[in-house]
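So, can you check what follows?
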Amino acid sequence: MPGQYSDRPDPIKFRKVLAVVHGEDEAMKAHPEIAERRPSRLVGMRPAHIMAPIFNRSDAENARMSQEMLVSGIFGLMMMNLSWLKLHPETPDLYKAGVSYKPERHRYDPKTKKTSEYGEEWQTIPWVIYRGYGDCEDLGAWRAAELRAKYNIRANPYIKIRQMPDGFWRAHVVVRWPDGQIEDPSAKLGMYTFRY
């Protein structure tokens, strides 16, 4: 039946779909001058960057606001992944897709001689597969969407936050099952053993 999930996805079809989805990306990497040009008419969207003051202060009020913003963002990412899975039921399950945990790179500032986080790139399923890696929000949103779409389990991405010794806050995305069980896709895919 069309649109139904099977235990045996068609890997050839899936590779073709990803090739189409990511074909332009390779051209843009090879020719960044083209990527910077605006099309003469609207032909699609460039990657979206959502700018939000998440954890920009160390006070509890900002932490609460930041957590609410992250929750809405991670649910949005899960919904995008659900859309992908409906259109591409041949997508392999997260733990069978050959991807691993890898955080965004840190940026080195030669002027200050300090390293800082680059920022967050929230990737949908095809981008995680294409790159071969994702970090906690990418993997958590994929797993929650997969559990909903393929297994009819109403799991949700869940954000854990904690305050660090320097006073600032850190967030980590996991998956909460309907019975309250917590699953950490990042841990299962190498978070504790990852090294650049």
Summary: The longest strand covers residues 156-163. Residues 11-188 form one domain. DSSP finds six helices and seven strands in the chain. The chain has one domain: 11-188.
